[in-house]
Every structure is written in structure tokens, then in C-alpha cells.
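Homework help board

Subject: predicted structure for assignment chain

Our instructor gave us this sequence and asked us to write out the predicted structure in C-alpha cell form, then describe one feature. I got the C-alpha cells but I'm not sure how to describe them. Can anyone check?
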Amino acid sequence: MSSDRADLSKESRSALKPIKLTGKQIDVAKRDEGPQGWFLPVVESAYTRLLPSGAAAMPSPRVKPAAGDAFESSLQPGEGESVLAQVGYTVWRELLAEYKRRKAAAVPRPAHAGAGPAAPSVPGGRNWLPLGPTVVLDGQIVGSQPVGGRVSGLAVSPNGQIVYAASANGGVFRSDDGGTTWISLMDGFDVDPTNFASTSLVCGAIAIDPADLARVYVGTGEGDTHQIFRSRIVNALPAYRGIGPIRTDNGGATWETEPTATGSPELAGEAFFALAVDPRNRENVLGATTKGLYQRVPKTSVQFEWVIRQPGVHSSVVVASVGGMTHFFAAEWGKGVFHSTDGDTWTPLGTGFPTNNMGRIAIGVQTDNPDVVYAFVANTHGAVHGVYRLDAMTGSWKQVNNLPNVLPTDNGRSQGDYDLAIAVDPMDANLIYLGGSYADIAPFPGSVWRCVV
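My C-alpha cell output:
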């Protein structure tokens, strides 16, 4: 590494390229092959203003979309966001309640007490319908094969055999054989099944106690989708919000909810990006959430609660311990990286960290080496801002040159606000792994890069 910049070695750049990316723009006519194919139609169908039957015009002025507008109506071609209605915070809950009322009203009532179920409408037809959980049909993979949905976090035991996987809408799964077979841990856990806007089965972060593999923390609510809903659907609580932090002490057999402390913004209805467990004290846990940076603290001798330590969206938190001291590192979206030795008091980390055009930040560190810290930064359009490295916590941040095409752009934009990941090899501080957006292979799978600094 030079005095002011770090570079990927020539060997790394030439030998570690699993896929050559062109960075070509996605044809808008083919955008149904990517996330916009499912997201924009859902937004439009849910929020387009409804008119009385026979009405000839919109009830409000129609404004043409500005050049480069990310949303263009397919139901009403040529129109921009003015066709979308403004909705209240309770819209999803009210819609679900209305659905349940209609469903209950539509169920046939028996003629008298003890009457059996009505016969099937078609003799010999199916009398059962699947209620789930099940696979997602037409998944976003080559050939549109069924998939199990996305995984938002993994917690791996030190021996690599016990693995916990937190899914975005199906709870937590566990493998006892290094990922060969899996069991679901939350089929019977749903704290509030009627609340569509806050679900206990949506998971955004997971962390394991390395000294006790049965103790696992989960942050419900998926933080990765935060920016999508923040920028596209004003005032609406989306489906990927949680009930706050939960915990298991028996490997997922049962789960306990943990409350937000009085005086701190409620975590129910928010979402988690990451969790970090103090290796010297498993009761001391930090959570990076859409509402702020939170710490798990004692409430009584046997109970715990979560207290906000820093406001603002925090997209990453990691921990390293050496010499009997714990070091936490956290990133605030668009702001920078902070450091703490106790989880309570936080100070900016290093000097010379970028300040302009900053978006989501992900942090990478070895668990036993707090002296080398990496920050993978996206800009405000989701494209790569840069990877930055800090040597010694009081030093100056240096930019890593010659990055691979981790976040290919389309009209200057990419998905760094949704998929942004970095990890440091536990044996080599100069070997990092970057995870980002699609490769130019239909239907645009994600890419992982191994980089020697």
C-alpha cells in the first residue's frame, strides 16, 4: 500500500475475475427481468388514484414526468408520480383488516352446530389449498425457477457446522451439518399475524454468541429495502418492517421478544441492517437500524431492553476484540464511521473520510484486529463511491484503487442502497470480499469479488 492510497494487486485484478462485466445499461423495455419488473407494477397498482366509474379525467393536475424520472406509469403512459396517491401510515394495516373482514364474511356458515364442512364444489377435486411457507414461483434466477426467497443474514458457528440463516419474509432456518440440510425455526412463531406492517417473520440481521451456539439474536425488519420504500412510497409502512429485536436461548426452539427502552424511539415498525455481539459479554449487543444505533442494556437483573445511542439510519455495525478490550465500529448512512469501546459513547473514526455524495456504508473488520478497518461506500445514486481503508484507529482513511465493477450502473445509478457487502479474510487483512449488484447475465444475478489490497 502506498503512502496515500491502497491498490488491488495486478495478480488480483487479472486472476480473480469470475465474470467479466460490461457495465452496459439495462434496456428499459426489458426491465421486467430485474427488480423493477416486480416493484414498479406493485407500486403503481397499489397507489394509482381510483376514479368513479365513467370519470373522464384525473381529479388532480397531471404532470408529465421529468427527464430521467425513475417512475413512469404503465397504466397511464406518459404520466409521472402525480398519478400516485398519498397514503397514511396505517394504509397497509387497514387494507389487511378489510381483507380479513371480507374473507370471514365469505366463509359459509354451517346450518346447525356440529355440521361438517361443505362438500367440494367439484366432486373429486382438491379439498386443500397450500397455506405456506412454500417456494416463490418464477424466481429471479436463470430460467425463472422456483426459489425460497432471499436470505438477509447468516450467523456461522466457529466450527462452521452450525449455521443460522435469516430470511426476508420466512423467519430463521438452521443447519447442523454445514448447510447441507435445513430446518425452519419459526413455523409456530408469529407475534402479531394480523399486522401486515410489522411482522415477526421478516428478518434483517442475525448474530450468534460464539461461546454458546444456542444463543442467537435476530433483528426483525429488513433494512436493505429501507431506501426503496423511503424514496418511492411516502408515508406508507411496507411489508418488510419488524417487531424489534428477538432472541433465542435454545437454538431456535423458542423465541423471546425484547422491548425498546422508554424514551427511545420504538423499534417495532422499523428494520435492522446488522447486529454485533460483544465477544467478552454476550449480553452487550449493538444493532444498526433504520431508526438509529441501539444498544442492549440491563433493565432488571434478568431482563434487557434496547436504548438508542445515535439517531439516524445506521447501515452497519461490527465488532473486534483484542487484548481484553472490545471495539465496536458503526456506520451512519451518508455520514461516516464511528467507534466505541463500550457501545455507549461514540466518536468519529480516523480522519479524512469522504463527506460528499455519500449513501449507504458497509464496514468490514477482522474479529481479532481492530487496527485495520474497511468501509465500502455507495454514493447517493447507489453507485460505487469507493472502498476506504484505515490503518490504526487514529490514522487517515485511504482510498483503494482499481475496484472491480461491483455495482454496474444504469444511467449513473445502481443498487448500492440495497445490496452492499464487504468482509475481511480472518487470516489476511489484505484480502477482502465485496458483494454488490448484478452481473450482465440474465436475469442479472448478484456478484461476489475477491480482492487483494
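Reply (TA_rk): Your C-alpha cells look well-formed. For the description, you could write something like this. Confidence is low (pLDDT under 50) at residues 1-6, 8-33, 112-120. That's the kind of observation they're looking for.
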